[in-house]
Design brief:
Layout (H helix, E strand, L loop, with lengths): L3 H12 L21 E8 L2 E7 L5 E7 L3 E7 L4 E6 L5 E6 L5 E6 L4 E9 L5 E8 L5 E7 L5 E6 L6 E6 L5 E5 L4 E2 L2 E2 L8 E5 L5 E5 L6 E8 L5 E7 L10 E4 L6 E2 L4 H6 L7 E3 L3 E6 L4 E6 L5 E6 L3 E7 L2 E6 L3 E7 L2 E6 L4 E7 L2
Antiparallel strand pairs: 1-2, 1-30, 2-3, 4-5, 5-6, 6-7, 8-9, 9-10, 10-11, 12-13, 13-16, 14-15, 16-17, 18-19, 19-20, 20-21, 22-23, 23-24, 24-25, 26-27, 27-28, 28-29
Length: 358
């Protein structure tokens, strides 16, 4: 078994160029540009930061976090960004991504924890965060007022246990990846009875649609949308180790979840876990740090068209029609379509997810 310390040692070696050679490299820019990307990073043993990077993934500034971070949300109107603590998270950190200055370190309430993700409303006035009730894992979307200093003003509930990621659609509908898992810390307690779902909430927090997958051990976790009406979801499989089910699905309201296609041995490469997902009008890309790889599917045929190795493949976002993919070994891959890519070395041990500033 590879321990977290062993994994981090390998990644440190990769950052120093001693392992994981990356092919198709391009020359790194001499000076970073303006802030375009946000992500959490590991900077040493039990040392964590949130990093502001330019469009190439080159770091501009960093802010220390009290514990390991996970997802980051951005608010371009106020130049705010929020880094969420990894589940069961005890904080979210609000900061100015132009200056790197801390605005507020917001602790979780006594009987709550954060799941590591959140999103701003389309009008920039509200922050929605996935939360859980300690002891029950009852799912909550916390609603925070930006102009009131991120004061919690409401909670949306009654959609299931263990919400992980939340995104917002153009019509202000919230979409929640409900993992369905009751946990004690990070230990799952209800694998045999878990009920994951892809759930839709209206602007008032009421459940308006919910769909699931046939296998209830496919925990729905990470989400994206294509800029229009299609939602993509990546799963974590909590069933038998020798089974390799489909881990990525797409959905449009009023229809069932449609699983993307790959051979069982290809799904096995993802090691039962999808970390980040993004889509353009033609392609869908999903990463797996546990599988040290990422896959690209045709959005039109749902067929896997590329499966590429990438050490600790972590975040992915779309800039224009180009994917930007981060690696815990410091690599930043730019790819607009299958088999056409360049890689830069950022020398940042990127962790989990990226967010693009728009």
């Amino acid at each position: 078994m590879v321990t977290n310390q062993t994994r981090r040692s390998l990644l440190k070696a990769a950052l120093l160029g001693a392992a994981y050679p990356l092919v198709g490299c391009a020359t790194s820019p001499e000076k970073p540009g303006s802030p375009k990307l946000l992500g959490c990073a590991i900077t040493g043993r039990d040392k964590f930061k949130v990093v502001v990077a330019d469009e190439h993934g080159m770091p501009i500034r960093q802010l220390a976090l009290p514990a390991r971070g996970h997802g980051v949300a951005s608010n371009a109107k106020y130049r705010h960004a929020v880094a969420f603590g990894r589940r069961p998270g005890t904080f979210f950190q609000v900061f100015d991504y132009q200056t790197g200055e801390s605005i507020k370190l917001h602790p979780a309430e006594k009987n709550r924890h954060f799941y590591g993700h959140g999103v701003f409303s389309n009008d920039h006035q509200w922050l929605f965060a996935t939360e859980g009730e300690r002891g029950t894992s009852r799912g909550i979307i916390g609603v925070y007022d930006v102009l009131a200093g991120y004061k919690k003003v409401a909670e949306f509930t009654d959609f299931g246990l263990g919400p992980h990621e939340v995104i917002i659609m153009k019509d202000n509908t919230l979409v929640v990846g409900v993992g369905g898992v009751h946990t004690d810390g990070r230990k799952p307690l209800n694998i045999e009875t878990m009920k994951p779902s892809l759930s839709y909430l209206n602007a008032n927090g009421f459940l308006i649609d919910s769909v699931g997958l046939p296998d209830h051990k496919l925990s729905i976790r990470h989400l994206a949308h294509d800029g229009d009406n299609t939602v993509l979801c990546g799963q974590q499989y909590r069933g038998t180790p020798d089974t390799a089910p489909a881990l990525v699905a797409m959905h449009q309201r009023g229809r069932g979840l449609l699983s993307l296609k790959a051979e069982p041995e290809q799904w096995a490469r993802f090691n039962h876990y999808i970390a980040s997902i993004a889509a353009t009008k033609d392609w869908i890309l999903a990463t797996s740090p546990r599988g040290n790889c990422y896959g690209i599917w045709s959005k039109h045929t749902q067929e896997l068209v590329e499966l590429s190795p990438l050490p600790d493949a972590s975040g992915v976002v779309v800039q224009g029609e180009q994917f930007k993919i981060s690696s815990g070994a410091g690599g930043v891959v730019s790819q607009s379509e299958p088999r056409h890519k360049t890689t830069l070395q950022s020398r940042v041990q990127w962790d989990n997810h990226w967010s693009v500033i728009v």
